[in-house]
Amino acid sequence: MDLFCGTMGSYLPYVLPALGGYVLISLFLLKNPYILHKKKRPAFYCTHISHRGGAGERIENTMEAFTHAVKEGTGMLELDCYMTRDGHVIVSHDDNLLRQTGFNVEISSLNLKDMPFYKERLEVTFYAGRYSTGEDRKFTLLEDVFKEFPKMPVNIEIKKDDPLLIRKVSSLVKQYDREDITVWASEKTHIMKKCQKENPSMPYMFTLSRGMQLLLLYYTGLLPFVPLGESFLQFYLPQLFNRTYIPESQILKNRLVISLIEKLTMKKSLFKHLAERGIQVHLFVCNTERDMEAAFAVGATGVMTDYPTVLSNYLRNHPPIAPPLPAKETAVN
């Protein structure tokens, strides 16, 4: 033991300066990412994202919802897709239609002509106790969204590991010439890899595991040295939990757990670093001005909401300041 301590002691004069130098270099590069990385130049930059087309103001994912959100000035539509038995790509948050329609049936078991209607009143998932209504209760085809809004950026989350669905979505994106304004999204890395392989031209999001890796890189100081392929980071605003959004998981109902998640993830220096590398940071689902203000205050470049009118009004009264362009960019990756 004495020998071990003595050996360690002999290395300390070398280890401590090296560690200190690493920390200083890492912090410098965190604040000046353009030294090692070329800033991403996406085809669009959005501060206003409509979750499920604005699920608080119209029935979620209907054409009426999308039209209303676009009219209110949204910069991106967020949606999810599944495929019917006869091969049509349907916009729907759930594969099983019980919550949305009252029928305990999966989209994949139905032909397009047999799709039921949405309920007349639908609870807003991220605003417990609030309901949306609308005249339009029909499920929408992804192709119709592309036809109706050819220039509108769309974030498509793929939840189901279905190669045919991924292929169909990619085919529609190519058909309507919108690869630069349509974003792959998925929580699962193995699904995202299939999406990227099918259409590598489309920008894509961090998955859940990649987000965890991002945090690890940040806290170990390695982030400034590592290239990132993703163009978007989407993450919950933790203060929503147990207030407007009641999670199903028991562990996420614990205030201490949520407080820890908030302290670990809501890092302004991290979000600023990503933004300066051209990676957009979207926090969701912010349905009150209080939450919108908190999201932008911590460094979000955009906010996702179920209430596009509320977010538009907030942005008119509190226009976000665009991050300054770096003075110099010398890329090595």
TrEMBL record:
Its main location: membrane. It comes from Megalops atlanticus. GO terms for cellular component: endoplasmic reticulum membrane. This is GP-PDE domain-containing protein. It comes from the Eukaryota. InterPro entries: GDPD-Related, GP_PDE_dom, PLC-like_Pdiesterase_TIM-brl. It is found in: Membrane. Pfam families: GDPD. Keywords: Hydrolase, Lipid metabolism, Membrane, Transmembrane, Transmembrane helix. Residues 46-315 form the GP-PDE domain. The chain crosses the membrane at residues 12-30, 215-237. GO terms for molecular function: phosphatidylcholine lysophospholipase activity; phosphoric diester hydrolase activity.
